[in-house]
Specification:
Helices cover about 75% and strands about 0% of the residues. By secondary structure, the protein is an all-alpha fold. Strand 1 and strand 2 form a beta hairpin. The longest helix has about 55 residues. This is Transporter. Keywords: Membrane, Metal-binding, Sodium, Symport, Transmembrane, Transmembrane helix, Transport. GO terms for molecular function: metal ion binding; proline:sodium symporter activity.
């Protein structure tokens, strides 16, 4: 073999050896890189798992002790002055039983879908009104704050009404009732009925002169009404005691606050049956004036009453449902409240007309 060929063969062998070494070194580096990336991915997964577990711990929220407490809380939130006072007034104003038809239609078309939406959002996100809107979008957080402000203003005048109720309740332990007859005025010569009461009525006089003790004009302050001040303070104390421990305290209060209005309504219903003309009230309720349904004002007031009756937009429905478990059947709850709203409206309407 020629000498040059041996040199060429040695050079080729050296090149092959170096190429094999390069391939082995590249394979080792690729394997090391793969192992490193695998460790990074595993570490990231463990970190994500820890974050998820931590979020679950942070997302722990008190829950209702029973389904009954939740139902009574929602019923107590819905069945309020908007049903007991406002609904009968609107029925009488808008044609009696004719008002029930647009109310039920709007309850099905608008009320129940929105009610179900608030139930499902609160139950899924498990936060209050402010937290829900911030979760959806931080730019929408103002809606949650606005609903809380509205609830605050509603609580202001609702507690005033509770104060009035406490005052009348405290004055009702008398026989005869102080607003049953007009007061008598005595002078040196004879006794006569209070002229202002005689021109109005005993209940009106007692309301303005005894309960409210109003002044003669708006320019006169009239001083502080201590009786109403004490009753208003008692109303706020009752609310604070009911809410001081969240649902742990309010969940027990609802057994009274939600059931007692039904006891009162049943008493009103029985009293209405015993009054003269109760048959006329039934006839008026089930004989609608269909021509009044063509007026847009009737439909507008019916839609407003739907929001009042179900408590939509106030944030209370979202807050109550946020204490439910995520697997709760909120669809069934929404349909159950539909029947509640319709039956409540019919009972109030009959009691008012009779």
């Amino acid at each position: 073999m020629p000498k040059n060929s041996k040199v060429v063969k040695r050079e080729l062998d050296d090149d092959v050896t170096e190429s094999v070494k390069d391939l082995l070194s590249n394979e080792d580096s690729a394997e090391d890189a793969f192992k490193t990336s695998e460790l990074i991915v595993d570490g990231q997964e463990e970190k994500d798992t820890d974050v998820e577990e931590g979020s679950e711990v942070e997302d722990e929220r008190p829950a209702w002790n029973s389904k009954l407490q939740y139902i009574l809380a929602q019923v107590g939130f819905s069945v309020g002055l908007g049903n007991v006072w406002r609904f009968p007034y609107l029925c009488q104003k808008n044609g009696g039983g004719a008002y029930l038809l647009p109310y039920l239609i709007l309850l099905m078309v608008i009320g129940i879908p929105l009610f179900f939406l608030e139930l499902s959002v609160g139950q899924r996100i498990r936060r209050g009104s402010i937290g829900v809107w911030n979760y959806i979008s931080p730019k929408l957080g103002g809606i949650g704050f606005a609903s809380c402000v509205v609830c605050y203003f509603v609580a202001l005048y609702y507690n005033v009404i509770i104060g009035w109720s406490l005052f009348y309740f405290s004055q009702s332990f008398q026989q005869p009732l102080p607003w049953d007859q007009c007061p008598l005025v005595k002078n040196a010569s004879h006794t006569f009925v209070e002229p202002e009461c005689e021109q109005s009525s005993a209940t009106t006089y007692y309301w303005y002169r005894e309960a409210l003790n109003i002044s003669s004009s708006i320019s006169e302050s009239g001083g502080l009404n201590w009786k109403m001040t004490v009753c208003l303070l008692a109303a706020w104390v009752m609310v604070c005691l009911a809410m001081i421990k969240g649902i742990q305290s309010s969940g027990k209060i609802v057994y009274f606050s939600s059931l007692f209005p039904y006891v009162v309504l049943i008493c009103f219903l029985i009293r209405a049956f015993l009054l003269n003309g109760s048959i006329d009230g039934i006839r008026h309720m089930f004989t609608p004036r269909l021509e009044i349904m063509l007026e847009p004002k009737v439909w507008r007031e019916a839609a407003t009453q739907v929001f009042f009756a179900l408590g939509l937009g106030f944030g209370g429905v979202i807050a109550f449902s946020s204490y439910n478990k995520r697997d709760n059947n909120c669809h069934f709850d929404a349909l159950n409240w539909k029947e509640e709203g319709s039956s409540q409206g019919s009972e109030n309407d009959f009691s008012k007309h009779t």
